[in-house]
Amino acid sequence: MVEQPGGPAAAGARRGVLSGLAKKRRSDADADADADADADADADADAGIGADAERPGVIRTAVPARLDRLPWARFHWMIVIGLGTVWVLDGLEVTMVGAVAPRLTEDDSGISLSASDIGTAAAIYVLGACLGALFFGQLTDRFGRKKLFMLTLGVYVVATTATAFSWAPWFFFLCRFVTGAGIGGEYAAINSAVDELIPARVRGRVDLIINGTYWLGSAAGSALTVLLLSRHVFPADVGWRLGFGLGALLGLTILVVRRHVPESPRWLFIHGRAEEADRIVDTVESAVEAETGRLLPEPRGSIEIHPRKTTGLRTIVATLVRTYPRRSALGLALFVGQAFLYNAFTFDLGTLLSTFYGVDAADVPVFFVVYALGNCAGPLVLGRLFDTVGRRPMIVGCYLASAGLAAVLGVLLHAGVLGAWTFTLVLVVTFFFASAGASAAYLTVSEIFPMETRALAIALFYAVGTGVGGITGPLLFGHLIDTGRTGPVMVGFFIGAAVMALGGVAELALGVEAAGRSLEELATPLTARQATARTVSRTTAASVAASRAGCPSRRGPAPRRW
Length: 562
What we know:
The protein contains 23 helices and four strands. By secondary structure, it is mainly alpha-helical. It is globular.
């Protein structure tokens, strides 16, 4: 699935020797840098963070290169488990509400929602997720990844716990809105942190696998409801409450693991906290060396930045719209396409099966488990290819393949040649590719924009894509299924296929090949551009002054180490 650690943890004596060698190597590097102030190569090779005495406020750091050259280790598993499991929670939430909806409309459920109330609750959850992504996304870029991914998970846990104690429709709606806001905020904070902490060479597969775990939560939610809704096991007003309680318990467990995940060193040095970023990377490097039994190679390359505390919303929007208009158009096309197709099929699958294949409502969760597992398999199986074959060919292939299969499925449905299980089988193959493509949409927008804008960019495209495709898809398919005729539904399949195909065409025309490339190479941080601009300005001024004084300009000393 992902690259495994290079070797077992060394014995205590071996670790001591390695630690001593590492310290000696770093001490020698420091001495060389101090002895030759003009040696830029030594400064770049140095794995620390430096400040330029002649250019106040400008620092040189190798933190990105140091993180990207790390072998896969326990630290990365902690990132995957502590941060990636948010998608499991989202899948559990969405599926749980859909599965328990019939129970909530019963008189003895303890809340007695109407059928329209169920639809309202779903819409409110999506609205909360969109607004939460935008609100918390901006805060994530401003205050840090860790503060926000702890806060948003806490919001989710509190709101989900409150949902379990709902006694009236208005309180249920309120809890669903806040729960959605927490999950939407998680999307922005988590995808930012994961991409900034995972090495570039495996970033694609790890991101896809993490996003694909949504369907593990979905499958678990479907399976759980079979037990929780059984009147032989739990009373009608208890089972559905336990379902939400289990979601909150899982969230608390993740919160405990997440406490040990550090702040993104990339975010820290961008915001002027260079020493803290250096300490975190030092700690990670020492742990990895002790675990693998090998010294790490020297990092290659460094970056100069002019740190600043915050980046204004106006600057962020201008960056997305003016500096990267093609990438912004790509992000919208990918998100709208996958949101339309996914929400249309997922929300209306049960209705479609019962209307055209006579599947009993009690049996729908079984079909949904199969559907969810097929979705999960796509990123798991294809994820590695996004790092080896490349982003563009894989995204184009997944989007166009799922579009073509969706169109074929519509024709087969109208022709009446499929049964309930054969229809589900073709659907699983379709979304095997669609799931990998949809996960790649999140990967794309999280790595092709500057770091100062990353979280808000993820939030913006998620909110717009979900708002446009995620709402129109289910509404359209719901009305078409209500006709009771397969002809109109086939047209709906064609529309979904066309919207998905547009995402594939957009990737073909506008896609950025990001496989194996550092985030800073894909999109230069705004603070790095600022540092470059100030350097050019000061160098020009110094040259003019030297010329007027009748002497050649002289290069200043190399950045000193912190």
